[in-house]
Amino acid sequence: MLAEIRGLNEECGVFGIWGHNDPAQISYYGLHALQHRGQEGAGIVVTDGNNLRAVKGEGLVNDVFNEGKLSKVKGKAAIAHVRYSTQGNGGLENVQPLLFHSSTGSLSIAHNGNLVNANHLKQYLERAGSIFHSTSDSEVLAHLIKKSSHSPFREKVKNALSLLKGAFTFLIMTEDVMMVARDVNGLRPLSIGKLGDGWVAASETCAFDLIGAEYVRDVEPGELVIITDKGIESDMFADPANRAMCAMEYVYLARPDSDIDGINVHMARKRMGKTLAKECAHIEADVVTGVPDSSISAAIGFAEASGIPYELGLIKNRYVGRTFIQPTQELRERGVKMKLSPVIQVVKDKRVVMVDDSIVRGTTSKRIVKMLKDAGAKEVHVVISSPPMVDPCFYGIDTSTHEQLIAASHNVEEMREAIGADTLTFLSEEGMVEAIARPFEDESRGLCLACFNGKYPTEIFPDTVLPHEKDC
């Protein structure tokens, strides 16, 4: 899916490697695999056991790193990050991993997710004398660790993590240890792998495949994994809460070749497409096509279940760089056409089923429907492999207000009319949950469905009571 032009932007991605003689190079490849999770900036911080050194910049992984830069950061371990900003502004100071130096040693942090109580914690920390160098909510953790009166360092980290609310996976590194943490609800994915004698952590398992690492297990909610030269051990910084993996990881965010909490993303999306076909069996059409890339799996499933042939009716131009918001409608539409083109011979004089993964504002759906009809499609039936997004996300996807969501103020018929489709059908919430097929007994199957039903697994607006001095 064309995230930059449709209003739904990805999470960040984190990667870490411990016990390898070229950690920067391995991290570079790991970030390549996670590039879909963030295109605004990338960074790598390496430890050689005595010092932490950083290489980072704004832009894509290939733009930020080259052989010359990576050769200057030698060591035995690294943490790395690709960024899409949901909290905090752009700018180099917000590119992660964040790196801090003090008289007691150095600390680096990489974060995926969003802390819903970050502003409250910042107020508390600033009143206690902290000065923040970035506008990222991720920096809060570093200040909480430094301020903690607990000892040793592991206990400082556990105490700091226990004060955070929201969605997060953190990689934390000093000169001699890497720590890996996941929030108590497991809202964001994080896995551990093995590469030779070394250990790897990544937001998605597709990063393991690229570097040749073996998947070992997922980090558990509330868990802190500690990795040193002596090996790996597990601790808990808090008791796990209700399991609530973000459903959008399966719908849109993750790469199809990743396994999220043991469920392959491609197969989950394909099942969503099959279920969607059953739920809208009334549609008569000649061809099924998917909007590249995240909707292709669902489109294949829809075609298999419906018996309507699947075709490449839309082609994504993979060699176009990011296009920023243009000042006129004509230029905005031209930007869409640069990234996506209809195959006229496939759609002309045909009744087309256009499979998409979600509708946010509806503007891109409208442009694609118009593109297909301008190419000669007789009818365009839009089918969405997720329910309507009616509520904001506060956990790291940049749909944090109802105004950004067309489904929050329009019913399905109004949305159909707005995008110009002949019909519009969304997958039911029950159908999506069943298709993802997570092995949990509760009705949500351990998924966060807040953007579809407003049932948030954590406090969204925590009370204004700040932590007491003794808690830190």
How would the blueprint of this fold be written?
Blueprint: H1 3-6, E1 13-18, H2 23-33, E2 41-47, E3 52-58, H3 61-64, H4 67-71, E4 77-83, E5 98-102, E6 105-115, H5 118-127, H6 139-147, H7 153-162, E7 166-173, E8 178-182, E9 191-195, E10 198-202, H8 206-211, E11 214-218, E12 223-228, E13 231-236, E14 245-246, H9 247-253, E15 259-260, E16 263-264, H10 265-279, E17 287-290, H11 296-306, E18 314-316, H12 329-339, E19 340-342, H13 344-347, E20 351-356, H14 363-374, E21 379-384, H15 412-419, E22 423-426, H16 429-436, E23 447-448, H17 450-453
Parallel strand pairs: 14-23, 17-20, 20-21, 21-22
Antiparallel strand pairs: 1-4, 1-10, 2-3, 2-4, 5-6, 6-7, 7-8, 8-12, 9-10, 9-11, 12-13, 15-16, 18-19
Helix pairs in contact: 6-7, 10-11, 10-16
Describe the structure.
This protein is of the alpha+beta class and 472 residues long. 29% of the residues lie in helices and 25% in strands. It has 17 helices and 23 strands. It has helices spanning 3-6, 23-33, 61-64, 67-71, 118-127, 139-147, 153-162, 206-211, 247-253, 265-279, 296-306, 329-339, 344-347, 363-374, 412-419, 429-436, 450-453, and strands at 13-18, 41-47, 52-58, 77-83, 98-102, 105-115, 166-173, 178-182, 191-195, 198-202, 214-218, 223-228, 231-236, 245-246, 259-260, 263-264, 287-290, 314-316, 340-342, 351-356, 379-384, 423-426, 447-448. The strands form six sheets. It has a seven-stranded antiparallel beta sheet. Strands 5-6-7-8-12-13 form a six-stranded antiparallel beta sheet, with helices on one face. The chain has a four-stranded parallel beta sheet with strand order 17-20-21-22, sandwiched between helices. Strand 12 and strand 13 form a beta hairpin. Helix 10 packs across helix 11. The longest helix is centred in the middle third of the chain and has 15 residues, at 265-279. It starts with a helix and ends in a 19-residue tail after the last helix. The model is unreliable at 1-7, 322-327 and 468-472 (pLDDT under 50).
